[in-house]
Structure formats: C-alpha cells, structure tokens
Amino acid sequence: MNNLTKIIKSQIRDFGPITFSEFMELALYHPQYGYYSSGNGRIGKEGDFYTSPHVHSAFGKVLANFIMKSLDIIDEEKLTIIELGTGKGLLAIDILTHIKNSNPEQYDRSNYYIVEQSDHSKNESRKTLIDHSHKIKWLSSLDEVENEKVTGVVISNELIDALSFHRAKFMNGNLSEIYVSVENDKITEVTGKPSREDLEEYFKNIDIQFREGQEFEINLLAEKLLREIDGILKKGFILTVDYGYLASELFSPERMKGTYKCIYKHSINESPYNKIGEQDITAHVDFSNLIRAGESLKINKVQYTTQGQFLIDWGILDLINRGIEEKSSQLRSFEKEIQAIKNLFLPELMGDKFKVLIQEKSLGRALNDFYPESPFKISFNVL
C-alpha cells in the first residue's frame, strides 16, 4: 500500500465517504504524491500514454497556423497566447518556433502564458522552452493574470478530460452519486444522494433518457474553467482539443458503465483504486456542455469537428508536401515521419478519436471567411 492510498483511506475513515471527484483530485493532484504533481505523469514511449505533440511536431505547427490567422483577425497591438496545461512544453515550442519562422512580426508582438499547476512540469517546460523564455510567463492559475483583460487565443490539448469529475448512476428513476468508501480496509464504492444540486441540474435542459443502472460522469470543472477564461479574455478565440462527444452520443445507453478509464504504461483498465497516484484517470469530454456554457457567457461556437478534419483544414497536407519537397533526396527516411503525421489525422487513428471545439468572444462580423475552405472532407458525422 503506497502513501497516497494510506492518506485517502485515513481521510475516509475520519470523515466518511468522499465523492469520486474528491478521490480523483487526490489521486492526480495531491501536492506530494499525485500522478501529475509528483512528476509520475509519464507521457511518451517510456511512459503511460501519448499526446499529439509527442507524435509529431506537425500538430503544433498546424495549431500555429490557426493561431496566426486568429491573431490577424483579432488585430490588436498587444496579443497573448495562453496554453492551459503544458506538460513538458512540446506543444508550446512547436507553436512558438513555427510562428517565429513564419511570421516574425507577429512573434514579436505576442506573449505566451503557460498555466500549469505542477512544479515538475513547469521545470521541464522551462528547459524545453529556453530559447523562447523571453516570450513566456509561467502561471499556476488564471487568477494570476495581472488584473488585465487579454486579447488573443486560449488553447488546451487533452486538459478537460483530466479535470476531476463526479460519477453518477441512474437508479429507480433518479440520479444517485457514486461515492468512494472503505470496508474491511479495502476501498469500495457506495451510492447515495447527489452531493450537490448542480449535479441534477446538469441534465435539466437536455433530452437524455438513461437506462436503469446506467453509470456516467459529470464534469463540473469544465464549465468553471470556461467562466475563468471568460473573466480574463476580452476578445479572442478558445481552442479545445480532447477526446469526447456531444451529449446525445456521450450519454448513450450503449455506454452503461460510462467512459472513465485508467491508463498505465499504455494499457487501459477500469481499476482506479489500484496504483493510486501511479496511473492516469480520465473520462470523455461533454462538448455539448462546453458549447452550452459558452453560449450562456456570450462565447459562441465557431466550429466543432474532428481533429483529423481540423488538421486538414488548417494545412497539415501542405506540411507533408513541403517536407517531401525539402527531403526528396532522403524520402525513404522521411516516410516514417509521414506515417507519424498520418497518425494525427487519419480517421481510424487519432483523427476521429479527438475532437476540436473553436469558440470566439466579441469578434462578431470579423469572422467572415475566417475558417478556411476544406481541401476535402473526411467522412465522419460530428453533429
């Protein structure tokens, strides 16, 4: 039994069952032993999972294409790019390097804020981004944005799925919450009344029909984060990349046990109470909630699509063609890179698994002809 497991069991014995959200907050973000805060959040070949920036730098370059067009549309003297949850800084360095090489004037006008809770990740990203350190401000939360309303682009990649969520179960025609308890020194689950009213209100205006015994996740922190962004963003775009669905598909009866999963050394399991603090815990994102919450704040949806379609729309095929031209004499060695890039956008790989939501605030008519004409459409229904 590791130290974090002992801490959680002791807390439950002293104060009673805790929500899954409280358990997850300890498992992932405990200051000393949490998966992300301790430095055990291993990403990459030798770690537990990959993110798109680890697959190929083309992902960051395409996001940079989007950001450069966005900053042109915003057209303010001072521009800010905010990345939420940067990890080792791979996405940031790909974005900043591409902007510097493609549009030096825009690079000079822009600042890059990194919002990262983990001290370990901050230190790692500082090493990665040393050549761009003069452009970067490291923050622990959006509250640290210095009493200013920024204009620019807020981006997150695989952040929302890692926010602590509640787990619930539809029983006897009502919503019950799943709590984490201890019995005979073993962590168990029990059900009870919802711990807060907004869990039941979450589905108030949504036409979802649950089956008896169906389990699902409710992420209240996603809307809270959007409200925090609204508090500091005067004008600009919000770009969210993550795996998930619209509500009608996410809460489908086909998913009787919900979507939460644990990841350890590239293997998926449904045992959150094993290896506590040593494995990741995630659930699919409810993009309908982000769209709905945004509209309540006058943050409007510009586009909701798959990662594959987004990457094609914003120039990933041009990057491949350019690479082929530049490396024609070494084409055989470049073939591995081409395959890595394809992993990012092909439907059967990461292209359909991940979705992209673009939202805007206070831009209105400036958005005419903003989103590029697609070179071709990937056959996939996101509506």
Give a brief rundown of this model.
With 383 residues, this protein is of the alpha/beta class. Helix content is 38%, strand content 25%.
Please outline the helices and strands:
Elements: H1 3-15, E1 18-19, H2 20-29, H3 52-55, H4 58-74, E2 79-84, H5 90-102, H6 104-109, E3 110-115, H7 119-128, E4 136-139, E5 150-157, E6 166-171, E7 174-183, E8 186-192, H8 197-201, E9 215-218, H9 221-232, E10 233-245, H10 247-250, E11 261-264, E12 267-269, E13 280-282, E14 285-286, H11 287-296, E15 299-306, H12 307-313, H13 316-326, H14 331-345, H15 347-353, E16 354-361
Parallel strand pairs: 2-3, 2-5, 3-4, 5-10, 10-14
Antiparallel strand pairs: 1-7, 6-7, 6-9, 7-8, 10-16, 11-12, 11-13, 15-16
Helix pairs in contact: 4-5, 9-11, 13-14, 14-15
